[in-house]
Amino acid sequence: MPWPRFAVVVLTAALVQLNWVDVVAVTRFNVTPDLLLILMVFFAINCALREAIICSFIIGLAADIVATGFPMGPRIISFGLFGTALAYLHRVIAIRKIHYQALTIFLINFCGSALSRFLTFAANRSGAAMSVGAILGTSVYSAVTGPFLFMLLDWSMRIKSPRRRRR
């Protein structure tokens, strides 16, 4: 795993998520893609198990900093949990085709967003009710854009892992 390249990609995605993702937002529904979650799914699928788990927690930390400004929050828990589960699942099921990647991004985004909003609600006890429409819209938008970002990430990261070799 090229860790310096990983750091640059995560920082770039965090800055884009924070500043410029509103450019591609569907303003009628206030829906934007979750770039950091797409990164987490990419690294959980393409890295070795230990590296995938580390990447999931680091990207969750970046997502918490982007979303709330605080380093520890609900997104590090949900990213770490679902990234680890996806890394273990990928040892059994290969997620290589574009429609499987889109479905994976949709499911992980939906479940991870629901978990992080539930944890936020449970911690605050006065938070707003969960907006299922916003979670669903973000999940669909991320699932549509994710596989195309996978191609760009695959080219830029050039990850060499045992999963990528033919047997």
Sum up the structure in keywords.
single chain; 167 residues; mainly alpha; globular
Structure description:
The chain is globular. The chain has one domain (3-21, 31-157). The relative contact order is 0.17. It is built from 6 helices and no strands. With 167 residues, the protein is mainly alpha-helical. It starts with a helix and ends in a 10-residue tail after the last helix. The model has no long low-confidence stretch (mean pLDDT 86). Helix 3 runs antiparallel to helix 4.
In a nutshell, what does this entry contain?
With 167 residues, this protein is mostly helical. It contains 6 helices and no strands.
Mean pLDDT: 86
Strand content: under 5%
Give the domain tally.
1
Name the overall outline.
globular
Could you give the count of β-strands? 0
Q: How far is the first residue's CA from the last residue's CA?
A: 20 Å
Structural class: mainly alpha
Q: What Rg do the Cα atoms give?
A: 15 Å
Q: In DSSP terms, counting alpha (H) and pi (I) runs of 4 or more, how many helices?
A: 6
Layout of secondary structure:
Elements: H1 3-20, H2 35-46, H3 49-68, H4 74-90, H5 98-124, H6 132-157
